[in-house]
């Protein structure tokens, strides 16, 4: 494979050329650097994830400000009197501005409206969304607080504000009303539902109005763009120009475009080849008794959108239909519990435990369990080792905007081997067409897909993985960031013209 079109260095050159006199402000709920107190000492970590990977180098180049909720236990010790800290801590090049939220605000804004309301609304996982007036009021309050902090950072200067995700849907309109000259862009990291589902939300018109305060609004795939534009037309009566993907609301245009997010292919591939990861893999194989086993892998945040119970049932059906693999194939399910204060997640944890017990008690032996469940926050080196070890990886999401686990597995396979089993209900399925695509609801077909992965000849595994690696390498995280940044900076509200294709 040749050099990808976009690298970190090329992205930095692009930013330097395009930013001009504008100050770049990134806004997200989650912060790129989290400070903690360990044994009385202040330390920091950078959370894993595509957003930080893509935007951190962009910010380091242009020296802007990242505004985010301060959720680290040591954050309050790290900031100055204006709640700012220069990051990265080892080589400061931009400002992190932290927003403080009370427990009451977090409960209503984050756990309530964002994750009991918007999250299930936007994911077809058959979990009923909960919409409470008190949560909505807190969501509005927190969005206003973020707007205040962003405007304080801008201080009347030319600025481009790039907002992340569903927690801050009202922010663009608040900024536009305060200062019409601000360039506003937003990337929505989760699916956008169909109109028939979206209309469930009691405050859908306010959400749409907020998002249409953007000059640019990005989604992972075209279907989500289409769903959004239909909602804008039918709920608000906005004028939609399908040819240009433009929505006119209050006589102002918003460009709605797809930007499939990705991973840092080169970093993951090199990391997988490192001596540290090789040693970790060797240690895990010995400690977990995996020598000579065929290894399957799932790495997920434990969320009802990920189809984990469906995956466990399918693996049980696989062992039932193909008993010759009992004792020979083991499945490792890794993933940290999340949002445990929400009832749907508590029920999911119980369901996962029940399904695991059924499979392991039926097919396990004295020294072998068919499924090894690791619901822990595992170190990055351990996850990298699992990806390197796994003969096949399963991504069985019931609905996902993209799913970067699939791309991380492909990027890690420097040996050009391994099989990806992938749900068609992920954004990644539209790109990684050489995966074994299977409906997670079809348990029998899912079991057959696992057998196909186990029995696939090396030549076919190799050919498929080479093609998938080429896709992920070319469409890497820097490609995503570059396309977004070009469209954002060309979408100034002064020009009011359709933006050229990238």
Could you give a quick summary of the protein structure above?
The chain has 502 residues and is α/β, with parallel strands linked by helices.
Describe the structure.
- By secondary structure, the chain is α/β, with parallel strands linked by helices.
- It has 2 domains: 268 residues, Glycogen Phosphorylase B (Rossmann fold, 3-Layer(aba) Sandwich); 210 residues, Glycogen Phosphorylase B (Rossmann fold, 3-Layer(aba) Sandwich).
- Helix content is 45%, strand content 17%.
- The protein is built from 18 helices and 18 strands.
- A 10-stranded mixed beta sheet has the order 5-6-4-1-7-8-9-12-11-10, sandwiched between helices. Strands 15-14-13-16-17-18 form a 6-stranded parallel beta sheet, sandwiched between helices. The chain has a two-stranded antiparallel sheet with strand order 2-3.
- Strand 2 and strand 3 form a beta hairpin.
- Helix 1 crosses helix 2, helix 1 runs parallel beside helix 18 and helix 11 crosses helix 14.
- The longest helix has 22 residues.
- The radius of gyration is 23 Å and the shape is globular.
- The relative contact order is 0.11.
């Amino acid at each position: 494979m040749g050099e990808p079109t976009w690298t970190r260095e090329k992205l930095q050159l692009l930013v330097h050329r395009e930013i001009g006199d504008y100050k770049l402000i990134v806004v997200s709920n989650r912060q790129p650097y989290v400070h903690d107190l360990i044994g009385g000492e202040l330390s920091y970590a950078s959370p894993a994830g595509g957003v930080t990977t893509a935007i951190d180098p962009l910010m380091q180049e242009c020296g802007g400000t990242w505004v985010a909720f301060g959720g680290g236990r040591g954050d309050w010790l790290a900031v100055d009197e204006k709640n700012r800290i220069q990051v990265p801590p080892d080589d400061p090049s931009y400002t992190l501005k932290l927003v403080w939220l009370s427990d009451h605000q977090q409960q209503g804004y984050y756990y309530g409206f964002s994750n009991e309301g918007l999250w299930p609304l936007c994911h077809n996982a058959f979990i009923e969304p909960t919409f409470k007036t008190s949560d909505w009021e807190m969501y509005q309050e927190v969005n206003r607080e973020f707007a205040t902090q962003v405007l304080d950072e801008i201080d009347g200067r030319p600025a481009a504000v790039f907002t992340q995700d569903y927690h801050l849907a009202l922010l663009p309109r608040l900024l536009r009303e305060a200062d019409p000259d601000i360039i506003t862009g937003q990337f929505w990291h989760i699916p956008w539902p169909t109109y028939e589902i979206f209309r469930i939300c009691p405050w859908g018109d306010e959400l749409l109005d907020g998002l249409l305060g953007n000059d640019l609004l990005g989604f992972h795939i075209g279907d989500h763009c289409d769903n959004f534009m239909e909602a804008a037309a039918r709920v608000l009566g906005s004028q939609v120009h399908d040819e240009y993907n433009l929505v006119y609301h209050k006589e102002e245009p918003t460009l709605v475009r797809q930007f499939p997010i990705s991973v840092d292919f080169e970093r993951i591939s090199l990391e997988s080849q490192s001596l540290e990861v090789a040693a970790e893999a060797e240690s895990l194989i010995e400690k977990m008794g995996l020598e000579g086993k065929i290894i399957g892998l799932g790495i997920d945040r434990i969320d009802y959108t990920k189809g984990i119970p469906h995956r466990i049932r399918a693996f049980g059906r696989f062992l039932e239909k193909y008993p010759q693999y009992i004792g020979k194939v083991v499945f490792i399910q890794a993933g940290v519990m999340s949002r445990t204060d929400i009832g749907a997640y508590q029920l999911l944890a119980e369901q996962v435990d029940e399904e695991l017990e059924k499979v392991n008690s039926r097919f396990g032996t004295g020294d072998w369990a068919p499924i090894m469940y690791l619901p822990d926050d595992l170190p990055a080196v351990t996850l990298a080792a699992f990806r390197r070890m796994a003969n096949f990886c399963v991504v069985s999401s019931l609905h996902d905007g993209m799913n970067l686990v699939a791309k991380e597995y492909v990027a890690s396979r420097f040996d050009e081997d391994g099989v990806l089993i992938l749900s068609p209900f992920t954004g990644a399925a539209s790109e990684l067409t050489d995966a074994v695509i299977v409906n997670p609801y079809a348990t029998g077909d899912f079991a057959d897909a696992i057998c196909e992965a186990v029995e696939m000849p090396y030549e076919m595994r190799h050919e498929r993985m080479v093609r998938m690696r080429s896709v992920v390498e070319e469409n890497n995280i820097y490609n995503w960031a570059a396309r977004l940044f070009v469209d954002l900076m060309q979408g100034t509200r002064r020009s009011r013209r359709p933006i050229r294709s990238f």
